[in-house]
Amino acid sequence: MWCNCPDANSATALASGLVKEKLAACVNVLPAVQSIYHWEDRLETATEVPLMIKTTAAAYPKLEGWLQTHHPYTIPEIIALPVTQGLPAYIAWVHDSIEKI
Predict the structure, then answer these.
(1) CATH number of the structural domain spanning residue 52
(2) What are phi and psi of 56, to 5 degrees?
(3) Are strands 33-39 and 42-54 parallel, antiparallel or unpaired?
(4) Do residues 91 and 98 touch, judged by C-beta distance below 8 A?
(5) Residue 3 and residue 79: Cα distance in Å, rounded?
(6) Under a CB-based contact definition with an 8 Å cutoff, are residues 35 and 45 in contact?
(7) How many domains does the structure of the chain reveal?
(8) Fewer CB atoms inside 10 Å of the end CB: C or N, the chain?
(9) Can you give the residue range of the structural domain that contains 6?
(10) Counting beta carbons within 10 angstroms of the beta carbon of residue 91, is it exposed (0 to 12), middle (13 to 18) or buried (19 or more)?
(11) Spatial separation of the C-alpha atoms in residues 76 and 5, rounded to whole Å
(12) What does the alpha-carbon distance between residue 13 and residue 8 come to, in Å, rounded to a whole number?
């Protein structure tokens, strides 16, 4: 799962909150990227900090709600990607680390 944040402080706070709430097994706070997009009929450029969030499909709805509530953006980028394969022990660890929903 991916989510961009406006700065390192908000990225770290969101990452810590997701893991503390057991909505994510792990969150990688990646180096800043430059984003170019349209917002309110204007072309915008912003430096953002991406989060790569490891969670389960079952935890996704609760995680999405938590992120919407705590994220500073009006419409945060929240994108889930399917995991088609992975090391079984790692996948099991992710499932064991998430709150049972």
Answers:
(1) 3.30.70.120
(2) -115, 160
(3) antiparallel
(4) no
(5) 7
(6) yes
(7) 1
(8) C
(9) 2-97
(10) middle
(11) 8
(12) 9
Angle between helices 8-20 and 60-70 (to 10 degrees): 140
Q: Answer whether 0.70 is exceeded by the pTM.
A: yes
Please report which helix (H) or strand (E) contains residue 94, including its range: helix 88-97
Q: pLDDT tens for residues 10-53?
A: 999 999 999 999 999 999 999 999 999 999 999 999 999 999 99
**Separation of alpha carbons 5 and 73, rounded Å:** 8
Candidates 37, 32, 67; CA nearest to 53 is 67
Q: What is the DSSP string of 59-90?
A: THHHHHHHHHHH-SSSS---B--------HHH
